[in-house]
Amino acid sequence: MSTDEIVDPTIAPSDQFRRFLLHIGIPVAGVVSVIAVIAGVGWHSYRTVRTGALALTHDLLVSQQDYIAKEVSSFLMPASAGAIVARDMLEHGAPAVEQKIFNAYSSTMLRNVPQIQSFYLADSDGNFSELERGPDGQGVAVTTLQNPGTDNSVFAHEQRDAQGKTVRQWQTPSKQYDPRGHGWFTDTIKAGREYWTHPYLVEMTRELTLTAAVPYKGLDNKTYVYAINLSLDHLNSFLNSLKIGQSGNAILMDHDGHVLAGHAMKETLARANGDPLKMVLDPSQFPVMSKAFDQYRVHGYGARTVRVKNRNYVTITANLPVGTDSWVLLLVAPEDDFSRFAMADGRQNLLFSILVVLMASGLGFLLFLQARRSERMHRQIEQAHAVANYESHALQSVAAYPELFNPEDNALILTEALADQSLARRAAIWRILHDGHTLMCIDSYDRQQDVHSGGFEMATTDLKSFFDSVSHGDALVIASAADDDRTSAFYRVYMRAFGSRALFCNPILGSSGPVGVITLEDAPRAEMVSHFVDMIAGVAAARFSAQHYTAVAAAREELESEPTAEEEPRDPSQGFLLQPAAMTAEGQPPATDMTKVDGFYPAVAIMVISLSDIVMTAQDDPTANIKLIDTMAGILQDIAHQCGLYSIRMLGHRVVCVAGCSRVPDKGAAYRMANAALMMRESTLSMLAKEDMDPVFRIGIDVGPVFGGMLGKEPQAFNLWGDAMGMAEMMAQGAPDVGTIQVSEEVYVALRQNFLFRERGRFFIPGVGLTRTYVLAGRR
């Protein structure tokens, strides 16, 4: 049971609710009410000021629009009125003085009306005259088309000073210029009245020009057109000079959306490549004006508010009469240009309200935190009492275990209590063996699967950093064991196969220093129950001490009572991996009478190591496979020599080891075989870990009588058969996990004083019946 699930039944739910309501609910509700009132008043004030400011903005902009419309009309009026006056003068003048009237009137207009650029006079026969400002605005320049309609037509130029005196005369090719082919002439004749053209590009000056023209009939019955040209540069400068708020703009357009003059005229002209018919607003460059013109097309003239890029703009579209036609005057300005003071006042009031709300919210939040902290501390105290009671019960359960300090009992309750208290995925107790170079797992408990395992051994050669930390008695709290230099090897060999990540290590201290370590994997409450882990470490240290003295006494007693047993002479041909002890001078094995080895052997220890096919297919390179198997064979051979085994053979995917092949029962055979099994398992695990491979073997051991004898012709082969051979193979095949050693009940009875075992249960074995099997965990 998790400590987070512990509930104190003495606390009634009604008391908890009432305490929460008094300490948190009512104060927080009061603060929230004050905040709501302040926020409501501030927002209402802001909205009122903003509404008034917008109304004021519209009124101011309408007044501004009236002023600008009058100014634009005044700018255009001289051209419109002057064209009508000139028409009346020329229409009733004699043809002989027509050119003089044109020159005199136009020169006077140029001197007095700065926005006028030039004057045209053309008739239905193709005659054409132009009067414009002289260079640098001094005097006038008169251009007359001579010989119109012929290949010899030329422009005759005459420059006059301010007093009317001719300064210079010259001619230029006309390139067959005909005024009757231009829009200002043909459209005016077609309209039959005063006509304003769209902006067009003058061929001679390459400037955009706007023309006001009137037609009339002369006394000579010819049709004439008198035109006054306004430079769009002057009109643009005039519109851009108008003050519309602080950052507003004005633009003049026709009803079809063509730009005539105003804001960003140069950019618009550049995008249109000088073509006036392509001079329209680009929505990507002028989103506010484009949106305002679109609303005009839908709703007509008037003042409106548009929002672009999170900013409000006030727009007004007004009708601008020009002669008998009309244009659209579009004004755009940010709404805060006219009402900045009011908006600033409203924002300031809103800001003050927000500051008051924030301060009240902060005080309310502090009050809430204080109440929550008080409530949390109250719950933590209650939970601490419950946890202390729970730990007390757990310690009582451990202390009440009858076999707690019995060296022959596994005391599985210790790892279960550790995992339960720390919520660890797996808890294990490790012991540092008396050689000081080996760390052995006494018991490991998996809380999720509710299973125990043990018997894992690790040497300092493979886990030096981890072993040094354990030997020095350091407590380790590591969130990622795979990434820490001290525990990366331990993670690779022991933790990775189970999928755990975090590691907590607590030393087990004996009289002379650390004698072991407790490991908790993925334990979120490990540090909170460290005192409980220390108490369990003390119990484990006492058990280690008792196991040591019991094992020493049992070993001495057994050695004193053990009779001398002599193994049969070894035949070099029988140990497939075991080399002979001696050779003759000729390199041949010594002569032995192998007929003497035939017969019955009462107590032979047999171990079978069953290898998985993964070993054979671990790598794609056959040479690497053979090298891996050869390395493993050499390691097993060395251990067989070191432990004094009689024979070791590799048969396919099995390795068979024999010890105690003698006529008299050899009580030390099982001990040597178990010792060899632990060493072989440790060395094989280390080798596979270096190759980044998981364990791929299982080991089985049995002790019993067998028959042996020489079979076949020369060279004969020595063979053993009997129940012990089959039982050892069944122990290997039925081992619970890879890398474990399963033994029969006979082996357990013979070695329980010297080794640690974990019972697996009772199993039915054909030919034998019900029997118990055990897992060899390690040495005592």
From TrEMBL:
Molecular function GO labels: adenylate cyclase activity; ATP binding; metal ion binding
Pfam families: dCache_1, GAF, Guanylate_cyc
Domain Guanylate cyclase: 591-732
Keyword Cell membrane listed: yes
Membrane spanning stretches: 20-43, 350-369
Cellular compartment(s): Cell membrane
Recorded catalytic activity of this chain's protein: ATP = 3',5'-cyclic AMP + diphosphate
Record's GO cellular component terms: plasma membrane
Highest taxon of source: Bacteria
InterPro entries found in the cross-reference section: A/G_cyclase (IPR001054), dCache_1 (IPR033479), GAF (IPR003018), Nucleotide_cyclase (IPR029787)
Membrane topology recorded in Swiss-Prot or TrEMBL: Multi-pass membrane protein
Entry's Gene Ontology BP terms: cyclic nucleotide biosynthetic process; intracellular signal transduction
EC number(s) given by UniProt: 4.6.1.1
Keywords: ATP-binding, Cell membrane, Lyase, Magnesium, Membrane, Metal-binding, Nucleotide-binding, Transmembrane, Transmembrane helix
Name by which UniProt lists this protein: adenylate cyclase
Organism: Komagataeibacter saccharivorans
Taxonomic classification: Bacteria, Pseudomonadati, Pseudomonadota, Alphaproteobacteria, Acetobacterales
